[in-house]
Known about the structure:
The structure holds 2 protein chains of 2 kinds.
Chain A: H1 12-25, E1 27-29, H2 30-37, H3 41-54, E2 57-59, E3 64-67, H4 69-86
Antiparallel strand pairs in A: 1-3, 2-3
Chain B: H1 2-59, H2 68-97, H3 105-108, H4 112-121, H5 124-169, H6 177-222
Amino acid sequence: MKSGEPSSKPDLYVIARIIKALKEKNRMNKTALATxxxxxxxKLVKYLVWMSEKGFIVVDENGLVILTEEGSEAYNELVGWxxxxxxxxxxxxxxxxx
Amino acid sequence: MKDSVLSEExxxxxxxxxxxxxxxxxxxxxxxxxxxxxxxxxxxSIAVSLAVGILFTISGFDYTSKSPQSFLYGFMLLLIPLIGxxxxxxxxxRQVNATKTGEWKEKLSGGFPSALEIxxxxxxxxxLDEISMGRLSYTLYGLLKTxxxxxxxxxxxxxVGNGLTLYFLHRAVFLSTFVSVAFALILxxxxxxxxxxxxxxxxxxxxxxxxxxxWFSLEIRRAEFQA
Lengths: 98, 227
C-alpha cells in the first residue's frame, strides 16, 4: 500500500485523514483535499477511487468530494474499534532509577 | 457526534500515554547501551585498586598493618573503587538523560488520524524487542550496582572496622572475612532495599506491558477498513 495503490489494502490513517478533512469542510475539491490531507494529488485520487467504490464518498458534477453517511459511520466505527483495543491498555508508571 | 469527538480525544490521549511509555523504554535502552562501559569502569577501578595494593606491598608499604599510615593507604585503596562506582553511575545517568524523547508530540497534534498513523507505522517487533532488552538491562544494572555497593561496603567495613579496633582495642582484626561479607550484604540490602523493591515492581510492570503490547500489536496489524 505504500506505493499508493489503495485497491488491495489501504492505509487506514490516510483514509481517516481524508474523512476527517471532509467531515470538517463538508465538501471539498480534490486539490484542496490533497493540500489539507498532505497527500500527493495522484495518491489522493487513487484513495478517492477506492473510497468511492466502498461508498464512503461521492464526487458531484462540479468535481467536489462529498462524504456519505456510510463514510462517516465507517470513520466512527474505526474510532470505536481502535478505542476498544487501545482503551484496554494499561501503562505502568515507569521511573528509571540509575 | 459529541461521543465520536470524545472517543477521538481518548484515542489520542491513550496513544500519547503509549508513546510516553515507549520514551521511557528508550531510556532503559540507553542504560542497556551504557551497561558495558559501566561494568568496565567499575571493574577497572577495582583492578586499579588491587594493582595499587600489590604495588604498595612490593614497595614495602604494609597497608594491612596496625599503623595509622597503613590505614591511610587502605583508605586510598578504598577510594579508587568508590570513585569508579561514582563515575560509572554518573556516566549511566548522563547517557540516560541524553536520550531524545517526545519527537512524536508534534505529529500527534494532528488528532485521531495522526494517532492512528503512529500506531500503524510503529515497528512493533523492534519495539517489543526493545522492551524485552530494556527489562533485561535494567535487571542486570540493578544487580551490578548492588554487587558494586556490596564490594565497596565490604572493603569499607574491613577498613573502618580494623581502624577502630586498632585504635580502641589495639587488635588488628575486627571481623572475619565471612562475617564482613554477610554484614556488608545486610547493610547494602538495608540501604538499597526500597530501591530494589521498586526495581522489581518496575520490571514486573514491564513484563505486563510486554504482554499487553504483544496482544495489541497483533490486533492493530490485522486491522483493515471494513466497508
